[in-house]
């Protein structure tokens, strides 16, 4: 505590907003003579935003790699990091002790316990006969292939059907996450009107590449949905479209998110219409359109609230989407006014951008 207070007196609030300052504090705590053992668990490292992931890995490599550091002061810090085995992570972490969790018998036992808990809950809700309970449990164990997420999605599908259809539904689900995602997407498309097919894929792409999770009204405006409806109808109709995407995306505390980062992997690999650069370009254009239409002189800054619409997101994030679209980016004719400095739209955008960077809305991201 004395170490923390001494750092805070010098850096004040900057201590809690700077990653470098917080990391240095963690390292200092680990080197206090006679101090406590510190255990840090970093789950789903592979799901971390790429720039933040790179920063964290560089710091871990610099601070804890014995081949690179000459510091003789022992550290009481212990890190446990969980991740899928991506090459870009292995290049930093290969010198540390690594284990394949799938090879541990305890994982199988944990998965079996999860299946038992899920099926007991389904049996209570759906009034499964004993024979259905046993068969569902057996099929889940056989098809899961050690993947907890697969079991969770499969049980989500079972929750939609009556007990007499439980076994048939489960037998129809493919093994492997990508195959399961494809089946869910096919079901979403077949359950919707032809006019909604494009919208469903646009929603999936925007959720996958938005710089932070979007609210329902932000999603409605980003995808140009139901502009002619009142707010209640617009929100409800947009929710219904999101619900069509089944378990690929979810609404969590009012924000639309991917179920899991593996959904983004699936979308990029399997869905031809979803491309990182093209989707970022589409998002940058929607952002600029929104700024042109809504960013007015003397506008009430409450209009930048994510609960009010897509304007705040657009002001803050269009430059990132433009950068990430790389060679796809081009200035459309209808967007040229935004880049005409003499028309003052650019100045208004910059004013609101600077305001948002200082506001709580500017730090939304999880």
From TrEMBL:
Transmembrane segments: none annotated. It holds the Pfam family WHD_GPIID. Residues 197-270 form the GPI inositol-deacylase winged helix domain. Keywords: Repeat. Residues 7-84 form the Nephrocystin 3-like N-terminal domain. This is NACHT domain-containing protein. It comes from Neosartorya fischeri (strain ATCC 1020 / DSM 3700 / CBS 544.65 / FGSC A1164 / JCM 1740 / NRRL 181 / WB 181).
